[in-house]
Design goal:
The chain is mainly α. The chain has 5 helices and no strands. Residues 1-23, 79-109 are annotated as: Disordered.
Length: 131
């Protein structure tokens, strides 16, 4: 597995499917799929597999990749505790603010999608520029 190159198109398709569920009814092939009992645990295991593959395939780039994986793990933790920042648009004391405001609460799901896109692009650069 360590010697296999990343299939970036397959990763993109998986992330796109996760981000955009089909409208209305589920197709028969998806309706028959059993959902993981613990989505957080499944997501952490998948992220660890991707981390292991990336580290094995690009060992000299491990230091560059580590912040992405660390932030992804932190975001998974925040998604498992959704009530932590629910309903707040600003800081702790109720101060206003929007995106980019000091103390603003960022949507962890949106940030995770951005992070996965950035990671995909970075892995693509590493794959095309050599190891």
């Amino acid at each position: 597995m360590a010697g296999e190159p990343f299939d970036l198109e397959r990763l993109r398709q998986n992330w796109a499917r996760a981000a955009e569920p089909p409208p209305d009814e589920l197709p028969a092939r998806l309706a028959a799929v059993e959902a993981p009992r613990d989505g957080g645990l499944e997501a952490r295991a998948l992220l660890e597999r991707i981390r292991a593959m990336a580290t094995a395939q690009f060992p000299r780039r491990a230091g560059t990749l580590e912040p992405f994986f660390a932030e992804a793990m932190e975001l998974l933790g925040r998604m498992e505790r959704p009530a932590e920042g629910a309903g707040r648009a600003g800081g702790e004391d109720g101060e206003g603010g929007g995106e980019g405001a000091p103390g603003a609460v960022e949507d962890p799901r949106a940030r995770m999608m951005e992070l996965l896109d950035e990671l995909t692009e970075l892995l693509e650069v590493f794959a095309t520029s050599g190891r």
